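Researcher: Here's the sequence for the chain we discussed earlier.
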Amino acid sequence: MRFNPCRFMTGCTAAPLLIVIAANVWADPTLVWRNAGPGGGGWIQSIAMDPKNPDVIHVGCDVGGYYQSRDGGRTFRIQNRGLTDYFVQEIVVDPIKPAIIYLATQSGVFKSSDGGATWKLKRKGFPPASEYNFSAPVGALVLDPSDPRVLYAGIGRPRRCTAGRGQIYKSIDAGESWRLLDGIATLAPGAVIHRLALRPDRPNVLFAATDKGLFMSRDAGVSWSRREAGLPHRYLRNVLVHPRQPDVMYAVLWSPPGETPWRGGVYRSDDGGATWASRNNGLPQQVAPPGDAWQKTCNYIRIAVDPRDPDRVYVGANSWWGAGLYRSDDGGRNWKLCTRRRETPNTDPGWITFWGIAVKCLAVSPLHPDTVVFGDSGRVLRSDDAGRHWRPIYSRRTASGRWQGNGLEVTCLNSVTVDPFQPRKLFCGYADIGLMISDDGGTTWVRRIRGLPAQGDIARVVCDPQRRDIAWCCDGKPGLGRGGVSLTADGGLSWHVVGSPQTGLPKGAAAFLTLDPSTPPEARTLYVVSAQTGLFKSVDSGRTWTACDNGLGNPAAPISALTMDPTDPKRLLAARRATRDAPLGGLFETRDSAAHWKQINRGIDFPDIRAIAIDPAAPRTVFLACRRHYNRRLKRNYDGGVFRSADGGQTWKLVFKDRFASSVRVNPHNHLTVYAGTTRHPYHDNPVAPGFLVSTDGGLSWTPANDGLSLRGISTIEPDPHDPRRVYAGTGGNGLFIGEWRP
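Model: Thanks. This is the structure I predict for it:
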């Protein structure tokens, strides 16, 4: 992205000499991004060890894409170039040419021939890609070790156990083309393929673990038969063949929540899958009551075996009860927990100490079998002594006790706030992991959630512009009944709740917090949207709250955006999102500090506004970031993208069309520079957005600016209030990015 450097000057009266110097410094500038954050923090979906280099670790995540370490986990790089789906279900490495890597995603199979540096989608033979669903989600992928040109891809979404069709596709040209093998569909229509396994000595023998049974093919997938003797039911999550003694196999069954007796866990076969026997002694086997969370029923989905010894096997619990990784040294007859955090602890979980170890992926090094790595809902841990001790490889602890990311950033960022007194202090509000604070510009981090009611989901922090260390935080996740507004007087070290039912703010999630800087410091006026119940106002720094949505549209429609005019704090703009009762939503304005509201989007409908920005130099210029919307009742599509009004909302122009514009901000240092972010919901094939966009002519034209941006789903944008050359962007999977204009 290139722009006119003279436009980036603050003010219009700079001396000519200063303009000349700035032009020389900023000749041909580019917006360059770098990733920052504490590391980890999101769902680790898949993991694989390189077959020839023990230092190479491959990691895939549910929203972050693909990560690679070449130094045993000390550092990682996000390598998403060419990926159009960031949900990496499985990773398969060519055993002969490890530079060839395959990814199973919900949009199909991606292939890299350069060690993961770039990716290409290989869909020839699969159904056409769809804009509205997953046409061929690949939930299982296996490669023939005797002929790496042969691969099998099973259809389904194992994490949610949906999209099953009983279908398997085969490639005989290293993934370049595929053909359908639908033999399982005849035996078990709608089966989700959870796992595929091959016999290394007889590669025509193929096994498929599905939610409708265990199947075996003797003719490379053409025909299938059931192999379930000894299994208590047909819901399988995994199947494994030992690489050196292929008659030894392991299967993992799912125990349905709320159903007794417990019928999950590990089963072993010593006759190539003909018969099976339970191997569950020592594994927790609790069943949650009917209707309770499924995570409270003990279940296991990942299993790995020592390639030297078929009796040494690991299995990971994917539940809250019994969470952890278990090891057996006698073929599964007896199991012991090998990730201990309480009695005789042997596991350093890193900075994520608030979650149990629910194992999502697991791998044993083919070269050094005592090296075991696994990922859970936020971490990657490594053992080099067969599970006797574990250390984190998703983040590193500094000498000061803070945490520094190593490149494995797997977080969803909701907001960034820069401290008005300390330019290098950042407050970052994340989904799931809470509030992280950096005092050094994003190099190191500490989690600060003491006193917050919903410690895992932070919407925004607002700092007092005149009083150092005073800030407010709104938090909570809609639907969970937790959250509110909290205040800190010590720069975020601790918080206490000021917005709650006792003070007039309804119980539940809070969002879109904004502060009137013109009000007295001892009695600040604050506005907050509370749990889809409406807009609330405090005139005493948050100690008490009252509703202030008189005239603000249909109360049944959620408020989806709120912003304050930077030149007139009495003027606010708010958006209501369309619902069944209010099918068109709308944009609303108040000019009397929310005493009265009126709808201002006359002649045009905005059913789904996600962000509002007001030009600080020309406040009648307003920008909206909107998502495309289909009205079923009217059978009409409404455009998404960035809309611009130059007359306070009387007329509008679509200046950038996109399916889902998520954010828009005007640079406060130069109102001609406008930033916009786009994203996609991961509910359809290839859900990758255009990314970060820049306009240098006041929003009339736009250019992508994604240099260094490994993930193009932008959730939030924050221009640096201190430095006109810096801007922050939050993503839904790779966390925080810091953008800088560089020559």
